[in-house]
Amino acid sequence: MTATRSVLAAQATDFPRWFQDVIAKAELAENGPVRGTMVVRPYGYAIWELLQEAMNRRIKATGAVNAYFPLLIPESYLQREAEHVEGFSPELAVVTHAGGKQLEEPAVIRPTSETMIGEYMAKWIQSYRDLPLLLNQWANAVRWELRPRLFLRTTEFLWQEGHTAHASAADARAYATRILYDVYRAVMVDVLAIPVVPGRKTRRERFAGAVNTMTLEAMTGDGKALQLGTAHELGQNFARAFDIGYLSSEGRRELAWTTSWGSTTRLVGGLIMVHGDDAGLRVPPAVAPVQVVVLAVKDEAIAAAHTIADELTAQGVRVTVDDRADQPFGRRAVNWELKGVPVRIEVGPRDLSAGVATVVRRLRDSAKTTVNRTDLAATVVAAIDADQAHLLAEATERQVSRIADVATVEEAIEAAASGWARLPYDAVGEEGEDRLGESGITVRCLQRPDGSLPVEDNEPGLTAYVARSY
Amino acid sequence: MTATRSVLAAQATDFPRWFQDVIAKAELAENGPVRGTMVVRPYGYAIWELLQEAMNRRIKATGAVNAYFPLLIPESYLQREAEHVEGFSPELAVVTHAGGKQLEEPAVIRPTSETMIGEYMAKWIQSYRDLPLLLNQWANAVRWELRPRLFLRTTEFLWQEGHTAHASAADARAYATRILYDVYRAVMVDVLAIPVVPGRKTRRERFAGAVNTMTLEAMTGDGKALQLGTAHELGQNFARAFDIGYLSSEGRRELAWTTSWGSTTRLVGGLIMVHGDDAGLRVPPAVAPVQVVVLAVKDEAIAAAHTIADELTAQGVRVTVDDRADQPFGRRAVNWELKGVPVRIEVGPRDLSAGVATVVRRLRDSAKTTVNRTDLAATVVAAIDADQAHLLAEATERQVSRIADVATVEEAIEAAASGWARLPYDAVGEEGEDRLGESGITVRCLQRPDGSLPVEDNEPGLTAYVARSY
User: Fold this and answer.
1) Closest-CA residue in chain B for A117?
2) Chain B residues inside the 8 Å CB shell of A109
3) Is CATH 3.30.110 correct for A403-467?
4) Would you say B273 and B221 are in contact if contact means Cβ atoms under 8 Å apart?
5) In this structure, how many other beta carbons lie within 10 angstroms of the beta carbon of residue A57?
6) Cβ of B34 and A91 within 8 Å?
7) Which CATH number is associated with domain B290-386?
């Protein structure tokens, strides 16, 4: 594994550089030609596809349906909601010319689609019978980023954005909360093996146009925070701006209550930053495009490698055979480590005659064990399940151990040098947020003492999670 | 069904208007706010999702892998291939401002990604071992259309675009041909129940930058042609422009041969135009979001409707229950007809006591039959399979019967008033294409006498298919 370490910066020395190196060497993505854009390479995209499938299934289970709204939004739409346009204006990409002519009204490339979808919700909703209206779309979006970083903050990103309309504030809140927990947290924890802290954003960290932003925050390998998904209560702000109204069962005209919620290709960045180690990526089996690689050490082992692969495929395992026996074994092994494939099976001529194979579990310190050929499939299938759980346990342990309970903003600033801080929000307040901000630290989210989410900005007795973030 | 007919223009009277009406009334899509853009509504998108799944599976079976390339292409990229930029320039949407500033180099929104992907192929391909490189992406694209029409020609459309590089012209051709037949034609015929005529485009109808465009042409309900998918041999044009080279096994530096191929949301338009009738849409079961609707005529039948639906769901049928017993039965039935749901099961109180249900097969003249409750599930499952095949047979029959064999351009022009014409291309030629063009008619494609595809532009003895088109 020495060879691997040499191609990547060490995490402890320069984590952001390590992150860049892993993305390049594991062939996950690279920079696009227009500043801040990203090319997602096949291996990175395959992870995204598996993640997307898991997310899409859970979104549909909440009753939402997929649709597709245009990329190009008339500039005037954004201007209808004051906070929204103020928040997004600096990040817009604008189409001024098309078809060889200047456009009468410039069109912006969607930074998010509240305004576009608001316009259509207003048309489609007539009566209380049409509510709730639960829409989702899988799409690209563009926000001109000042400090782009692959997967985490790219000028163009891929995401799902959900947009719903409800007959009451309570119904809107209940649905957005369900998305936060049953969709986002479920995918993060059960699929990506990433523990997350749920909470409410403070006023200053809120989505532009929302009355409440709920977030899920993950801890990266270097102890920073990464926001992985948000669900917003939009109150009646967009309903008012786009006239999303309905006739109640009593025959009165009422304004709807809307929500929006999004999760992006940043989730792949989260997976890298939470699970990766100095040898490279470590992919949770649930989203691993290759769960098992069978490595034929020499030509004589190629046929056996394929037989093993077929057995595993029959058990529903995603498996690939590395039969490039003409290339150095060590380099191939290191490459699969870099790519974070959970289980590597090595088969050489000697193994064959001894009726065994070597199993290397990437998610468990790459410990090697010799397994009888007859037990191989069962052992590997069990390892896949166990190691998915192991990754989550490991990340949870780190998260718990690196959150320091402190009492003051000064202590929080000190603690945030190496992890997160947790302290009473009453000891922070808006003034404390200013001071944290001067040190590049933010309040990631607020929770009630029992871990549940506050429903008001100024509930007393809240706990603040404070950290540096990506 | 009289009620339905009144909400749609009659096909025989005004087919394009009927098309628009169906899209609106079946809630498939509507116009976006920026001219030519499209909102794909949930019902239309659900059809697209099923189609996409079928297409994606077959694309992957050819060995291609999915990736994602940026939406924004530097303007200079397009200029590197002379024919390509000439062909696409008039249709480009250009981003001149972003992040509050004018861009140093304007970026175009991808009209197609040969140039973007060519740039990365050049980086990723080193030796013959890296070939073939088989990439695909699911994405949106923008081409500023002069005469937009929902699904058929929208300013923004959804599609998959495949881009591959090969070590030889023969390999490139073989792969593009495989995509044409094993992916595109397979999906059109086996999934969408749309018979298609494969052929080679004439020089003037070719993709900008290609040396050969292969196409699949469908016949619409009004006897016109609709190009549903194309695969292009790009020769070494883009390899030269982007320096996509490789070291051969003999150690020589060679230029690669590339292909590209695309299919779009137009396929949904094709489905509507090929199968729809005066009562509305008719959706092939393979892509029907709802294959069976169980309609409870009265409140007393709601429980039974759900039981029937559960039985069908258990058999893998996509089924929905219409339990809006408080709304007029006739209006509900007409609505499901409009949406083209293949099978409708009607259950009323009298049916219940007689132990029967009424089955209406939308894809077979909506004939009603009374079926014993015990035979219901088996009957419906059999009907779904049979009616998928029936749709294809019906469309094939129409296509065959409306292609007229003629001998001259004049006869072709006459025949194209009500269908397609087929004649020797030697009797047309480039001069004949001009004359056809004056009447708004084009050569859709060329075939050899045995139905196979010509590999040269000027092969003698070719058959031309000639028609008006959408």
Assistant:
1) B39
2) 71, 95, 109
3) yes
4) yes
5) 11
6) no
7) 3.40.50.800
Residues of B in contact with A158 (CB under 8 A): 68
Q: Which residues of B touch A95 (CB under 8 A)?
A: 93-96, 109
Integer Cα distance of A212 and A227 in angstroms: 15
**Which tokens go with A137?**
């779309």
Q: Which residues lie closer than 8 Å to A358 by C-beta, 6 or more apart? A: A345, A346, A347, A348, A351, A368, A369, A370, A371
Helix (H, G, I), strand (E, B) or coil at B315: coil
Q: Is B286's pLDDT higher than 50?
A: yes
Q: Which residues are paired to B157 by β-bridges?
A: B141
Which residues, in sequence order, are CB contacts of A88 under 8 Å at separation 6+?
A78, A111, A112, A143, A208
Cα of A239 to nearest chain B Cα, Å: 18
For residues B169 and B239, give the distance between their C-alpha atoms in angstroms, rounded to a whole number.
12
Query: Can you tell me the distance from the alpha carbon of A369 to that of A351, in angstroms, rounded to the nearest whole number?
Result: 12
Give chain B's end-to-end CA distance (angstroms, integer): 29
Instruction: Tell me the chain A residues in contact with residue B90 when contact means C-beta distances shorter than 8 Å.
Output: 99-100
The 10s digit of each residue's pLDDT in B293-305 is: 999 999 999 999 9
Averaged pLDDT for residues B223-231 = 98
* Domains of chain B, residue spans: 2-275, 290-386, 403-467
CATH superfamily of A2-275: Bira Bifunctional Protein; Domain 2 (3.30.930.10)
Interval B351-372: pLDDT, tens:
999 999 999 999 998 889 999 9
Nearest to A156 among B40, B48, B70 (CB): B70
pLDDT of residue B367: 83
- Weakly modelled stretches of chain A, pLDDT under 70: 1-6
- Alpha-carbon distance of B269 to B265, in angstroms, equals 7
Kindly tell me if the per-residue pLDDT of B3 is higher than 70: no
Q: What proportion of chain B, given as a percentage, has pLDDT over 90?
A: 97
Interchain contact, A41 vs B67, CB within 8 Å: yes
d(CA B89, CA B144): 10
pTM over 0.90: yes
pLDDT of residue B6: 62
